[in-house]
Amino acid sequence: MSGRRPLRRSAAGAIVAILAALVLAADQFVKYLTVANLPVQEPVPVLGEFLQLYFIRNSGAAFSLGSEVTWIFTIALSVVAVVIIWKALGLRSRLWAVVLGCLLGGVLGNLTDRLFREPGFGVGHVVDMISMPWMLPAIFNVADIFIVTGMISVALLVVFGLRFDGTRERDHVVVETEEEAEAVAAASEVHDLDADETRPEPEPQTDADASAEGR
User: Which of 49, 88, 153, 171 could hold 16 in an S-S bridge, CB 3.0 to 4.6 Å?
Assistant: First the structure.
């Protein structure tokens, strides 16, 4: 991946938009099926205790935290979505485009619930339906999966030093002071001088060579 040329900004933005739309559509389709077909707050085993479907409407965050201040989560999701879109405008990295596209789709999935589901605009309850009692006591949805994996992926990209422009941190010289900047410039000049000195000088042309060229 590091040897590939960075994307054009328009191409990176298109990746973000397409992935976000796909994730949003998948999340809302699963929620539609959940509301239309599953009983409320009754477990439906899929793989025994490993995986269950359990339809609830969540007014809060994970573990139903903050259920009395739903509007705060609406504002938070809106801010996150705006930040991701703003960052996507300057992207040239394929990995960052994929990660931010999936993350944006997850954020928009839950934000859609907050804005347009009951009991009202901005305070809607998120539809959750996936339960894995052996691993988590929380019940979550498709959007939550992409939000969690997206945040983990963002952390990994930051740790490995991949920048939004497709380059890596190790490819850039960090200059913190004017003295360091002057030292870097001086080292570059010395390197250029050394390169000039090592170049072989052209041999003087003899009369025989000149006559040979004239033939």
Answer: 88
User: What are the pLDDT digits (tens) for 119-167?
Assistant: 999 999 999 999 998 887 889 999 999 999 999 999 999 999 998 888 8
Give the integer Cα–Cα distance in Å for 196 and 50: 69
Q: What is the mean pLDDT of residues 107-118?
A: 96
In angstroms, the CA 14 to CA 87 distance is: 13
Any idea which residue has 């309850």 for tokens? 125
How far is the first Cα of the chain from the last one, in angstroms, to the nearest whole number?
54
Q: Which residues pair with 45 in a beta bridge?
A: 52
Where do we find the tokens 């000088």? 201
Q: Output the DSSP codes for the chain.
A: -TTSPPPPHHHHHHHHHHHHHHHHHHHHHHHHHHHHHSPBT--EESSTTSSEEEEEEESSSGGGTTTT-HHHHHHHHHHHHHHHHHHHTT---HHHHHHHHHHHHHHHHHHHHHHHSTT-TTSPPEEEEEE-TTT-SSEE-HHHHHHHHHHHHHHHHHHTTB-TTS-BGGGS----SHHHHHHHHHHHHHHHHHHHHHSPPPPPPPHHHHHHHH-
Q: Stretch 177-201: mean pLDDT, rounded? A: 58
Q: State the catalytic residues.
A: 128, 144
Q: For position 175, what pLDDT does the model report?
A: 46
Tokens of 9: 């900004």
